[in-house]
Design brief:
The protein is α/β, with parallel strands linked by helices. It folds into three domains: 61 residues, 2-Layer Sandwich (Alpha-Beta Plaits), CATH 3.30.70; 185 residues, Rossmann fold (3-Layer(aba) Sandwich), CATH 3.40.50.620; 118 residues, TPP-binding domain (Rossmann fold). The chain is 28% helix and 24% strand. The protein is built from eleven helices and 21 strands. The strands form six sheets. Strands 11-15-10-5-8-9-16 form a seven-stranded parallel β-sheet, sandwiched between helices. A five-stranded parallel β-sheet has the order 18-17-19-20-21. Helix 5 crosses helix 6 and helix 7 packs parallel to helix 11. It is globular, with a radius of gyration of 25 Å. The chain starts with a strand and ends with a helix. Bound molecules: flavin-adenine dinucleotide. The site of flavin-adenine dinucleotide has 29 residues, from helix 8, helix 9, strand 20 and helix 11.
Length: 402
């Protein structure tokens, strides 16, 4: 069943809607517009019809029930992720961008803090820029689970109708964002690399790589609210907290899911098999196809040890099975933003750059002087990494006294 309804009495067969449809979902039959199953209910055809013969009644009904209209929705919200009672730094990065968007729209910034014994996190949220905090504190919320968190965030959004809802693109954030967007019948743009406001329309301009990172897509959610976006770790800076800021902490009083209504139980947390915390690392030594095999990473590991750095890799090295996926940097791996990124034997493909291009200082070691990595490198060293990296390690070991 198509979403679009065409009033055949009104339609004059002008074809304006056919041109406006991006999906080829409209055609002319017997001089009247007809719609097929390709219709996505995007609404692009509605404003071009000169006789108002087109409408989206199902969508309007869903909006009335679930999502706010663009006109009535107000405010920017950030979901603050916590683990074992402590906020994850990605949430503060989101708070920084949320503050900027709220200022541009001249609306308050609201933080949603769910957990158990998390009042300190609610206070911290104000220090990081929130004007008010919805604070839900209950044993059922202690560890993240989709059902109780989504139930609560959906209920809050239905009641207060924010225009923007931001979540960090962590494992939990991605899970929650999908569940909430589905229930609110609104759009969600994952892994944004830039977020801005279009002043005239108050729309959130969401930018993210598309088609294998070859283009940057600009995505808007014109008809539904909240406009939802996730952003990966380290795309934005953590703002400086201000302990002097004041704000309102509002305890959430609405009904939560009872434990017996929640199908999943958290039994335990086990550490990941290999400790790789690329996102938090200040220095990363990264290896690509140029290391030549799993044993080639040994020289990089030595350099990383001397510098107290994490070990990264290109997808070519990961796909070859030389190093686990947890080390992969790039569009389909981790996004990193260290102070220093040392790329060894990495050509600098656009998909790799998508994950490390905002590093503060980039040192590239490559034997090909034409390698694209040199285009973004702060310092480039042309030569064989198996000569350069051990020499660098020995020098730094002496300088750093290891
Ligand atoms: C949808 C999609 C998603 C992708 N996601 C990612 C991603 O997340 N991360 C990622 O990295 N890639 C990703 N890729 C793959 C990406 O396009 C490249 O293929 C990959 O980054 C290449 O890895 P590389 O630079 O290690 O290998 P290569 O491009 O083969 O480069 C190896 C480099 O090593 C140099 N070299 C060789 N020997 C030495 C030596 N002894 N000393 C010094 N230099 C040497 C060579 O000159 C060369 O520049 C993705 C691709 C697609 C299509």
């Amino acid at each position: 069943m198509a979403w679009l309804t065409i009033d055949t009495e009104r339609c004059i067969g002008c074809e304006a809607c056919l041109e406006a449809c991006l999906y080829g979902a409209l055609a002319l039959e017997g001089g009247i517009a007809v719609v097929n199953e390709r219709c996505t209910a995007c609404g692009a055809c509605l404003p071009v019809c000169p006789v108002e013969a087109l409408s989206l009644p199902r969508q309007a009904a869903l909006r009335a029930e679930d999502a706010a209209s663009p006109e009535e929705a107000r405010g920017v919200w950030v979901w603050v992720e916590q683990f074992q009672g402590r906020a994850v730094s990605l949430s503060w990065e989101m708070m920084g961008v949320g503050r900027r968007l709220a200022d541009a729209l001249q609306v308050p910034l609201t933080a949603c803090v769910f957990g158990h014994n998390v009042r300190d996190v609610a206070r911290e949220a104000i220090a990081y820029g929130a004007d008010r905090v919805f604070w839900a504190d209950d044993a059922t919320l202690a560890a993240y689970r989709t059902a109780p968190y989504a139930h609560l965030l959906v209920a809050l959004a239905r009641e207060h109708r924010p225009e923007i809802l931001l979540l960090g693109a962590s494992a939990r954030g991605r899970d929650l964002a999908g569940a909430v967007a589905t229930q609110l019948h609104t759009g969600l743009t994952a892994d944004c690399t830039a977020l801005d406001i279009e002043a005239q329309t108050r729309r959130l301009i969401q930018t993210r790589p598309a088609y294998g990172g070859n283009i940057m897509a600009t995505i808007v959610t014109p008809n539904h609210r909240p406009q939802m976006a996730t952003v990966r770790h380290r795309v934005f800076e953590v703002p400086t907290p201000n302990g002097e800021r004041t704000g309102e902490i509002i305890p959430v009083t609405m009904r939560l899911l009872a434990e017996e209504e929640i199908a999943t139980k958290v039994l335990d947390f086990l550490p990941a098999s290999e400790e790789v915390n690329l996102a938090e690392a200040r220095i990363i030594v990264s290896g690509g196809a140029g290391v030549g095999g799993p044993e080639g990473f040994a020289v990089l590991r030595e350099l990383a040890n001397v510098l107290g750095a994490a070990l990264g890799a290109s997808r070519a090295a990961v796909d070859a099975g030389w190093i686990p996926y947890a080390h992969q940097v790039g569009q389909t791996g981790r996004t990193v933003r260290p102070d220093l990124y040392i790329a060894c034997g990495i050509s600098g493909a656009v998909q790799h750059r998508a994950g490390m291009g905002t590093s503060k200082v980039i040192v590239a070691i490559n034997k090909d002087p034409e390698a694209p990595i040199f285009d973004i490198a702060t310092y480039g060293i042309v030569g064989d990494l198996f000569e350069i990296v051990p020499a660098l390690t020995a020098h730094l070991r002496r300088r750093l006294g290891h």
